[in-house]
Amino acid sequence: NMASRSKSLKCDACNKIINQKCNKLCCAGNCGTYFHIDCVDLSDDENRIISKYGTLISWTCSGCRQSEVNNVSNANSDAEVNINCCQCSEYIKILTDQIYDLSKNQSKMRKELSFLLSENSKLSSALTNQAEAVGDILLTDNSDNDNTFSYSSIVKKSVKNKIRPSNISDQDKSYRNESLITKD
User: Fold this and answer.
1) Single pTM value for the model
2) Of 19, 90, 116, 172, which alpha carbon lies 20 to 30 A from 139's?
3) Does the keyword Zinc apply (predicted)?
């Protein structure tokens, strides 16, 4: 039991033990301490990068970052500049990959949005046409004086309403009806 206690890690932020099930970060700076991921103030993007690339990411705690900033500003050594450039190139590669992925996703989403807008327009137009047809049917006289409508009667009346010429005067209609009757 003493051996397991000596090997257990403690979070430098909360001083609680970090068990194997916990998500943890190890500072790559001079301190080399461990932290619960939840105890470190990470942005959503940082969380996503760390979960995707794991050990490829070199993370430093705020204390070490501050001391690195102080060291870099005070140092004139080419070696330190090269180390920082190497770390930057890793981040640039990761960010470039993410920008490429985001660009592909954005392109796909634009195509999908365009398709959905087109389909929405078609459906809206079809719905408007159907609503107008049903409205026209309901406004016409029901020959049976029955207020029940079957699907076939609605379609039949809709077809009649679409075929019926709307610009013929009532006199012309009665004349045509009389001429049709007398021809039989």
Assistant:
1) 0.35
2) 172
3) yes
Q: Average the pLDDT over 88-109 and give the result.
A: 89
The DSSP result for the chain, as a single string, is -HHHHHH-EEBTTT--EE-TTS-EEE--SSS--EEEGGGS---HHHHHHHHHHGGGS----HHHHHHHHHHHHH---HHHHHHHHHHHHHHHHHHHHHHHHHHHHHHHHHHHHHHHHHHHHHHHHHHHHHHHHHHHHHHS--TT------HHHHHHHHHHHHHS-SSS-HHHHHHHHHHHHHH-
Query: Which of 99 and 42 is assigned the larger pLDDT?
Result: 99
Q: Which residue in this structure is represented by tokens 């207020």? A: 147
Looking at the fold, whether 68 and 89 belong to one and the same domain comes out as no
Tell me, what amino acid is at 1? N
Among 74, 98, 122, the domain-final residue is 74
Q: How confident is the model at residue 28 (pLDDT cuts 50, 70, 90)?
A: confident
Per mean pLDDT, which range of 20-24, 93-97, 102-106, 140-144 is the poorest?
Answer: 140-144
